[in-house]
Amino acid sequence: MHFGIQDSRLKTILPMSQIKLAVSQISQSLAAVSLLVAHIGVMPTQAQPIPADDGTQTQVTLDGNQFDIDGGIRSGDNLFHSFQEFGLDQDQIANFLSQPGIQNILSRVTGRNASVINGLIKVTGEGSPNLFLMNPAGIIFGANAQLDVPASFTATTATRIGFGDDNWFNAFSANDYSTLVGTPSAFAFDTSETPGLIFNEGIEILEGNNLTLIGGTVINTNQLELPEGTITIAAVPGESLVKISQPGSLLNLEVEPLTSNPSTPEQPFTPLSLPKLLTGDGVSHATEFTDNGDDTVTLTSSGITIAPGDVTVKDLTAP
After folding, report:
1. What mean pLDDT do residues 272-289 have?
2. What predicted TM-score, i.e. pTM, was given to this entire model?
3. pLDDT for position 14
4. Exposed e or buried b per residue across 67-87, where buried means at least 16 C-beta atoms within 10 angstroms of its C-beta
5. What is the mean pLDDT of residues 278-302?
6. What is the residue-wise DSSP string for 144-173?
7. In this structure, which of 80, 91, 266, 271 has its CB flanked by the most CB atoms within 10 Å?
8. Strand pairing class (297-299; 289-291)
């Protein structure tokens, strides 16, 4: 498996066994990808956060065009939410309400649909917590997506987020929330197939320190700017464990094979292939890529072929 950045001046391939992608000092224009995607549409049944009926006590209250997200389960300085579906249409707002002392807000999406986000995700209330969104089915940020998070935002298609030695926030099975304390330290991708896609057509970051996107395939087709902090983008194969360390100001990722464990919950579905996800019911047809019929797509304007497991980046700007 490889990680690649395509650029008119630069063509680099790095081994995935030791990813250290820290874009803290980058001010480059990675302009090889000039894909103009038609505006992403959202199915009406998915254009809202729908709490899961699994005892997590997540509450969603609609106030005009804003969904206030409250409740959840607290464990130490972490707050956990669970959604059956999570999506936003244009002009909609998902407002995560924080509590005193909360350092991390972590959300899972348990349904089998990708999260298509065309609105604003923000965090309000006490403190400056980090926000995590985990959906193994895929995460798509449309042209009108915005982030207003006081600290860091992480989107991942992992099936589990790890704490400490062997404590996990599972996407699909029951959790022992009392053990999920401290800072997240790992992401597990349990599927034997290529994990779910993260697609960014146009996130506008209004506030935040760091942006992290970790999935099976990661595509960024628009300029991605972060006023402060680090942009980290990584694509990993299935049955992988991503370990996190953060010495100083650089986020380091180490990828290794998952150790077999019979008690590990299996992912109950296979993520949609890249062409199917980009042209499925939740996304209007993109006019400038070609479905090659082999789980790859080719960007018409640049001729670059994207396969499962690739990272494709257009523009990144970080201090």
Report:
1. 46
2. 0.76
3. 33
4. bbbbebbebbbbbbbbbbbbb
5. 45
6. T-EEE-SSEEEEE--SEEEETTTEEEESSS
7. 271
8. antiparallel
For residues 231 and 10, give the distance between their C-alpha atoms in angstroms, rounded to a whole number.
Answer: 19
Enter the tokens of residue 118. 């065309």
Contact 275, 183 (CB under 8 A): no
Tokens of 57: 């006590």
Rounded Cα–Cα distance for residues 35 and 224 (Å): 14
Is there a contact between 59 and 69 (Cβ–Cβ < 8 Å)?
yes
- The amino acid at 319: P
Two structure tokens written together for 5:
């950045």
- pLDDT for position 98: 97
Q: Residue 179: what are its φ and ψ, rounded to 5°?
A: -90, -10
Share of the chain above pLDDT 70, in %: 65
Q: Which residue has the tokens 């935040």?
A: 208
**What's the CATH fold of domain 2-317?**
Pectate Lyase C-like (2.160.20)
187, 254, 238, 270 alpha-carbon torsion, rounded to 10°: 30
Structure tokens belonging to residue 132: 């995590």
Residues 238 and 192: beta-carbon distance below 8 Å: yes
**Position 214: which residue type?**
I
The per-residue pLDDT for 271 is: 60
